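Lab meeting tomorrow. Look over both lines:
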Amino acid sequence: MWLAAGLTLAYAIVEAGVGWWAGSLALVADAGHMVNDAAALTLAAVAAWLARRSASARHSYGFGRAEFLAALINSLGLLILVAWITVSAVQRLHNPQPVIGEAVSLAAAAGLAINILIAGLLRGQRDLNTRAALLHVLGDLLGSIAALLSGIVIAFTGWTPIDPLLSLGMSALIVVSSLRLLRQALHGLMEGTPFNISPEEVGKALATVPGVASVHDLHIWNVAPEQVMLTAHVVVRDLRQWETVLNTCHTLLAQRFAIKHVTLQPEPETRAVRWLDARGRESIHNHPLKSA
C-alpha cells in the first residue's frame, strides 16, 4: 500500500511539472486526480497501521476516527483544486494557450502505465480500504486516457480547446469522488448510523429473540469505517434467562449485521412498562420495538 501511494504521488509531481511546462491543463488535472489517489492509498495504509494500535486510557476506542478527519481534509482540498481547474479551463476556452501535444502524450502514457502497475499491485486484496483505493486508481486510469487523448488530438490537429474541455470532464470526476468522500467523513464524525445498516431492521431483529419483550434506546454508529458500535436497552420477560438472551443477541448481530462491539442493558418488563407510560414516545430511538 505504501509503495503504491509513493509511486502515485511521485509521478503526480512529475506529471504536474510536465503539464505546467507544456501548457496542458488536462495533464495538471490528471496530476490532481493522482494526488487524490495517493491520498486514498495513504489513508488506507494509515488505517491499517492504526488498526494495529491498541486503545489507551485517553483513547479507549483507539485511533480509527483519524481516518474520518483525514478524509475530511482530503476532500476539502480536492474541491479547492477542482475550483481552480474549472476557473482556469473556462479562461482557456476564452483565451486559448499553446500546448505541446507530444510532451502531454508521453507524460500521460507514462502515467497510464504506472496506474496499470498500481492496479496490479492492489488487485486481489479483499479488505474494504484497499478496494476503495483501487476504485480511485481505476478512476485515474480514465483521467490518464483523457490526458493522452488530449495530447494526441493537439499534436495531430492543433485544436487546443480539447485540453480545457477534457480538464472540465476530469474535474467532474474528481468532484463526484470528493463529495462522496466528504459525505462519508462528515457522517462518521457526526456518529451517524452506517449507510448500509437500518436501525429499524436491527431493532426488529433483536425484538424477535426469544425472551425479549421489546427494544428501545437503540444507537448504532462508527468509531472507525470498519468498527461499528451498538448500544440498546433490551426489555426481557425473565431476567433469569438474560445470559441466554444476551448470547443469542450477540450471535444474531454478528452473523446478520456484522456488528460485534455490542453493549446491551437488560430491563425487567414491568419497569419498562412504567417508564413508557410515564414518558411516552420521545424519538425514534425511544420508540419501543416489540416482538410479535
Observations:
- The radius of gyration is 26 Å.
- Strands lie at 212-224, 227-236, 261-268, 289-290.
- The domain at 2-189 is CATH 1.20.1510.10 (Alpha-lytic protease prodomain-like).
- DSSP finds nine helices and four strands in the chain.
